[in-house]
Design brief:
The protein is mainly α. It has 6 helices and no strands. The longest helix has 29 residues. The radius of gyration is 20 Å and the shape is globular. The two termini are 26 Å apart.
Length: 198
């Protein structure tokens, strides 16, 4: 007996639902789609770099949970960029009672995305590189000698290889936000006539 026959979706059905929800809506250029799908990949290396700290024997339970949650939440936030090209960024999904199948107001997507792009650009594209070069923390304190990236050798190279891509997160989100706003403002949405919730 298959999973689908028990009332729960089987792997094939889940794959179809996932694809339907995340595939780009008509009118999304290929470059925009590729950019949106790249955002989670830009954020992933920093999470990979952080996770070993969660299993360090010198870390307490609270610190371990914080490191894991920071990595997971960062990746989930990065994934929201896909909503600027996918169906769920224009139509509320079927599992949202009271909203299912309704159009997402343009401002509901553009305003948070624009604020996020601004904050991320200020933090990772401007502030972090400047403070790193000056040997300061984001708060303006002097970096301790044991801080990641302060040493030399493979550990420092690994740190910068994982954190440097974050410089792109804010600008990429800004480009996607402008493209989403222009697409939604320029023409009626693809789902204006008939909306079918996912």
């Amino acid at each position: 007996m298959s999973c689908g026959s028990l009332g729960t979706p089987g792997p094939g059905r889940l794959r179809t639902m996932w694809k339907a929800a995340h595939e780009p809506v008509p009118g999304v250029p290929v470059w925009t789609r590729r950019l949106a799908y790249s955002v989670p990949l830009v954020v992933l290396p920093s999470g990979v770099w952080r996770l070993p700290a969660a299993f360090d024997s010198g870390s307490g339970a609270g610190e371990r949970l914080y490191v894991v949650m920071l990595s997971v939440v960062s990746e989930l936030l990065a994934f929201t960029a896909v909503g600027l090209v996918a169906r769920w960024g224009e139509v509320f999904p079927g599992w949202l009672p009271g909203l299912r199948g309704r159009r997402v107001p343009v401002g509901s997507a553009v305003v948070p995305a624009a604020v996020g792009a601004t904050v991320l650009t200020a933090l990772f594209s401007l502030l972090l590189p400047v403070t790193t070069v000056m040997g300061l923390t984001v708060r303006g304190d002097e970096l301790p000698p044991a801080a990641p990236g302060q040493g030399t050798g493979i550990a420092s190279v690994w740190f910068y290889s994982c954190y440097t891509p974050l410089v792109l997160w804010g600008p990429m989100l800004a480009v996607l936000t402008v493209a989403y706003w222009r697409r939604r403002r320029r023409a009626p949405s693809w789902n204006d006539t008939a909306v079918h919730p996912v």
